[in-house]
Amino acid sequence: MNGPASVASPEKVTIPVSGMTCAACSSRVQRTLARQPGVAGASVNLMLENAVVAYDAAAVTPEQLVEAIRATGYGAELASRDQTAFQEQEALDRGRQEEYSALRLKVGVSLVLASVGMVISMPVMSAPMTGEHAGHGTGEGAAAGDPFMNWVHGAIDPWLAGAMPWLYQVDVQLLVYALLGMTVVTMGWAGRHFYTRAWKAFRHHAADMNTLVATGTGAAFVFSLAATFFPDFFLDRGVAPAVYYEAVLFIIALVLLGNMLEARATTQTSAALRKLVDLQPVVARLQRGDAEVEVPVAEVVQDDVVLVRPGERIPVDGEIVEGRSAVDEAMLTGESLPVEKGPGDAVIGGTVNRTGAFRYRVTNLGADSVLSRIVRLMRDAQGSRAPIQDLVDQVTGVFVPVAISIAIATFAVWFVVGPEGALIPAFAAAVAVLIIACPCAMGLAVPTAVMVSTGKGAEAGILIKGGEALQRARDVTTVVLDKTGTVTEGRPAVTDVVLAPGGEGTEDGRAEDRMLALVAALEASSEHPLGEAIVRHAEGRGIPRLRVERFDSVTGRGAVGEVGGVPVAVGNARLMADHAVDISAMEEVAASLGGRGRTPMFVAVDGSLAGIIAVADPIRETSRAAIERLGRMGLDVVLLTGDNRRTADAVAAEAGIQRVVAEVLPEGKLEEIRRLQEAGAVVAMVGDGINDAPALARADVGIAMGSGTDIAAEASDVVLMRGDLQGVPSAIHLSRRTFRTMRQNLFWAFVYNTAAIPVAAGVLYPFFGILLSPILASAAMALSSVSVVTNSLRLRTLRLA
Question: Cα(267)–Cα(315) distance, rounded to whole angstroms?
Fold first, then answer.
C-alpha cells in the first residue's frame, strides 16, 4: 500500500539530509518519504538538515528510505546507532561552522570581484556603440536596460574618469574579457553549487531556489557571452550588444551574502541546545581503590564512584553515597537557587556543585543520562513541524515553476508590447523576476521560530516536545490541574503544632519541642507517610532523637509506645477513645484543621491529651501566583483530583481555584477531559502521576511536572523540569508569542514575494518609469531571508517569568 500507512506502533528513524537549500527542497523530500510504503509520517527540517520518519519495519527499512531520498537528488545517510545526542549535535555544529567559513570566504572574494567588475564596467558602458567596439560597449541606450547600473554609471563615471583616466584608455575589448574572466571564476567557484544543484534538480524533474538563481544568472551570462563574441548579430537588428557580467557578479555575491548571514543567524537559533551540549564535562575524577584517577567521561562505567569538589561540574548522573552539598541545576531546570543534596539523593550530569564535596555512584550513562535525553528531546522538538508549515509546503510546492512561468511571460510581454528596443529591459525584468522569487524566506518562517522558542523554553526549564504542541498550546482555553504533586508539593509536611490547654501532661509543661521529640521518636519506627513528615519536621528544628522502648502500630488508628519511660499515643480520635483520653478540649481545633484540608493527629502523653499535630500536603509556594496569572491570561482553571471533597475544596480555596472536581478515578479524569472538550474547550491537563497519564494523553496539550513519573512525562507534550506550576502560564505565553512570530514571518515572506514579483516584472514602469534591477532583486531576496531569521531571534529576549 502506498501513501501514509496506518501503523499501530511505528518505529522512528532520523536521517541526515544534505543539499537542501529552500522550502521547495524540504517539501519535495517530505512528499517523497510520505509516498513510501509503510511510512506513517515524515517531518523534514530544513534548519536541522534531517528527516524524522515514522515507519512500519515490516513494510520498509531505513536503508530503503535513504535510497528514496537520494532518488530525489539529495544526499542522505543513516546516522550511527551508537551516536549519542551530544555527538549528533556536535557534528551538526561542526558542519554549520564549516559551511559558514566556506561561505564567508566565497562572499569576500565575490564582493571584491563584483566591486572591481563595477569599476571596469564604467568605461565599458561609456564606450560608443560603434563597429569598432561592437559587442564590448553597452552604450548609453543599453544602460537603460538596468536602471540601477544606469544610475551608478551616471553617479560614478564622471568621478572615476577624473580619478583613473588611464582606465578609460584601456582597450574596451580587454576590459570586457577581464569581466568575462572574473564572471567565469565567480560562477565556476563561488557560485558553482547553484548550478550543480539546479542541474541535479532538473534531472529529477524538480525545481528549487538554485533553479531560479542558476537560470537567472545563466541567462544573463549566455546573453553577455553572445554580445561579446557576436555583436553584429545584435547591431544588425538595432539592439545594443549589452553585457551583464557585473550583474552576474553582484547577484551571486549578494545571494551568497544572504546565505552567509542566514547561516550565521541560524546557528544562533540553536544556541540553547549548544549550551546544553557544552554542559557535558570532558573528564571525571574516579575513586579506584585508595587512589583518585581522572579519566575521560567516555570511559566511566556503571557503578563507578565519582568524586566531586566544590565548584566542579558533575560529570555524569548518579546517586550520592557520602557527603552533602548544594547543587546548581539552573541550566537544566531554570531554578535559580541551588538544591540541597545528601546521601541517597540523585545528581544530574552537567549541573554544578556549589559548596561541599561528595562521592556518588554512577547510575545513568550515554544516551540514558538525563542531559542526553533532554538534548534528544530538544533536537526532536526542533526538528518537528508546526501544523502551519503545511500551508508553506502547499505554496512552495508550486512556487518555483510558477515563478519561472511568470519570468517567461514577463519577457514575452515586454518584447511584444514594450517600447522600441525593448529586448534589453525585457531581459533585465525576466532575470529580476527569477532572482527575487526565491522562496527562501517562506522556508525559514516557521522552523526558525520553533527552534528559537523551544530553546528559550528549555532555558526556563520548559521542555516542549514539538512544533505541533507549541502551536496547540496557544489555543488553550481551560487548564485542568491535578492536585497531589501538581498544585501541592506531593509530600506530607507538618503544618500546625497546637498544645492542649491546661499545661499538664509533660515534665516541662508540654512545650512544643518536648511533644515533637516524643512523637518523632515514636514515629521513627513507623513507615507511614504522615509519621515520616513528623520525623522530618523534628529533624528540621534540630530536636534530638529520644530512645524508644516500645512501639506498636494500630492499623487505621495510629501508633502507641513508650519513649524514655513515658507512654505516648498519636493518632485519630478512635485511638484516643481506645485509651480513654479526653479530647473534648480540642475537638473544635481538630475540626477547624480538617476543614482546611489538614489531617489532625491527637497526641497523648502519659494518658493525658498533650496537643495536636496537623499534617497536610501543602500547596507549592508558587501555585497561587501561577493560578492568578492563568486567570489574567483569560484561562479557566479546574482542580481535578481523586482526593476527598473536603480536602480538595480546602486546597482549591488556598490556591485560588473556583471549580473543583473531586473523588474521581483515572477513568473519571479521562471522562472529565472529554466532557470539557465536547463543550468546546481546548484543554491543557497538568499532572505528575501514573494515574494522570491517560488524561495527559487525552488532553489537547498534556503538561507533566518534571518531579513526577516517567510515564506521565512520556504521555505529555510539555515537561516542566522545575516542578513549578509557574511553568504552565509561561509555556502558554511562549506558545502565543511564538505563533505570533510565525504569522509575522509568513506575512512578510508572502507579502514580499507577492509584491516584489510584479514590481520586478515591470508593472510600475508604465506609470512611474520604475524597473527593478536584477542586482537590487538579489539584495532584496537576501534581505527577506535575514529579516525572517532576525525576527525569530527576537524570541530569545522574551520574558517568561
Answer: 26
- Nearest-5° Cα angle at 451, 709 to 271: 95
Phi, psi (rounded to 5 degrees) for 356: -85, 170
pTM above 0.90, yes or no: no
**Grid coordinates given for 579:** 485509651
CA distance 671 to 699: 11
Contacts for 445 with CB less than 8 Å, ≥ 6 apart: 392, 742, 745, 746, 748, 749, 788
* 172 contacts 123 by C-beta, under 8 angstroms: yes
Are 564 and 596 a contacting pair, CB within 8 Å?
Answer: no
86 or 664, which is more confident: 664
| 743-793 pLDDT per residue, tens | 999 888 888 877 888 988 888 888 887 778 788 888 887 788 888 888 988
Beta bridge mates, 361: 305, 319
Amino acid residing at 59? A
Q: What are the CA-CA distances from residue 84 to residues 154, 232, 272, 315 (Å)?
A: 60, 65, 18, 16
* Bridge partners, residue 244, by sequence: none
H/E stretch holding 146 reads none
DSSP 487: I
- C-alpha grid cell for residue 213? 538563481
Q: Which helix (H) or strand (E) holds 89?
A: helix 85-126
Q: Which residue has the cell 517569568?
A: 801
Rg (CA), the chain: 36
> Which pLDDT band holds residue 477 (cuts at 50, 70, 90)?
very high
pLDDT surpassing 70 at residue 683? yes
First to last CA, the chain: 50
Tell me: the pLDDT tens digits for 370-428?
877 777 776 676 666 667 767 776 776 677 888 889 999 999 998 888 777 677 788 88
Task: Give alpha helix (H) positions in 555-665.
Answer: 573-578, 587-595, 623-632, 645-655
In what helix (H) or strand (E) does residue 16 lie, and over which residues does it extend? strand 11-18
Q: What is the DSSP letter of 584?
A: G
What span, in angstroms and rounded, lies between the C-alpha atoms of 123 and 169? 9
CB 442 within 8 A of CB 458: no
Task: State the catalytic residue, choosing from 208, 317, 393, 482.
Answer: 482
Q: Verify whether residue 482 is a known catalytic residue.
A: yes
Helices 172-185 and 245-269 sit at what angle, rounded to 10 degrees?
30
The one-character DSSP state at 222 is: H
In the 8-state DSSP scheme, what is residue 309? -
**146 φ/ψ sector (left φ>0, alpha ψ -120 to 50, else beta):** beta
**Rounded distance between C-alpha atoms, residue 719 and residue 708, angstroms:** 10
Give the HSE-up count for residue 27: Cα atoms under 13 Å, Cβ half-sphere.
24
Nearest to 616 by CA among 517, 494, 715, 466: 494
C-alpha cell at 491: 509530600
Which DSSP category does 500 fall into? P
Residue 143's H or E segment, with its range, is helix 139-143
